[in-house]
Amino acid sequence: MKVRLLAAAAAELDEAVAWYAAQSPGLERAFLDQVREAGRRVVRHPQAWHLLDPAGIRRIRLRRFPYGLIYTVTDDEVLVLAIAHLRRRPTYWRSRRRDEPPPP
Question: Which of 24, 55, 80, 102 could join 5 in a cystine, given CB atoms 3.0 to 4.6 angstroms apart?
């Protein structure tokens, strides 16, 4: 099973990494490590995390940072809809699943 980020989620990741890099050198690396670890945990146990929506959208929280990966699972893929700051606009990402074009 692989992990794929929507373009909007990748942009959120880039934005958060840049913000943490500006706060303290090396903090962006710790953030990226947490995101990668969350992705690995989801791949190992895709159904284990908090269900946000009956359509199968779930959230895993990062351990050290106030972010979560909002994702859904298919047979062979974890699709990350958002790298969401958990203290801001909690449901802004809801329309993203419908907006994603099908894979080639």
Answer: 80
Residue 34 lies in a domain: yes
What DSSP string describes 43-99?
A: HHSTTSSEE-STTS-EEEE-SSSSEEEEEEE-SSEEEEEEEEETTS-TTTTTTHHHH
Residue 103 lies in a domain: no
| Residue-range definition of the domain harbouring residue 7 | 2-91
- 31's CB contacts (< 8 A; 6+ apart) are 16, 17, 20, 62, 65, 67
* Inside any domain, residue 97: no
